[in-house]
Specification:
alpha/beta, 5-stranded mixed sheet, 3 helices, 5 strands, STAS_dom_sf, STAS_dom, Anti-sigma factor antagonist, Anti-sigma_ant
């Protein structure tokens, strides 16, 4: 399976990178390049890596995410994972990297999103 990546500018100085498909030895470089491209165009306050549509990720894909995190951090930009698929969430948990990426809750299709109130 291939990988496609959609980049979007969200409000508040946030850029979302949303990969779809499998992040593995053949496609991991695309995630690194997408992060590098966003950083080359400017310095957003935060990069959100929306992993909702990622069906598989291997160790090379995890490594690409860590490299992207480090590149963003050096640039003074926070990189977080949002809406990880259950598979991605499990891989981040097993590798001990869930906290590095903001400890996101797994995405469940059809689940209501909960609103977080300021100060809560």
């Amino acid at each position: 399976m291939s990988l496609s990546i959609v980049k979007s500018v969200l409000s508040g100085g946030v850029v979302e990178i949303a990969p779809r498909g499998e992040i593995d030895v053949d496609t991991a470089y695309e995630v690194r390049e997408a992060i590098a491209e966003v950083l080359a165009k400017g310095r957003p306050l935060r990069i959100e890596l929306n992993m909702r549509l990622v069906t598989f990720i291997d160790s090379v894909g995890i490594s690409a995410m860590v490299a992207g995190f480090q590149t963003a951090e050096v640039s003074g930009v926070k990189l977080v994972v949002t809406q990880p698929s259950r598979f991605v969430h499990r891989q981040l948990w097993v590798t001990g990297l869930l906290g590095l990426f903001g400890a996101p809750e797994p995405y469940f299709a059809g689940a209501a999103t909960r609103e977080v109130l300021p100060g809560a």
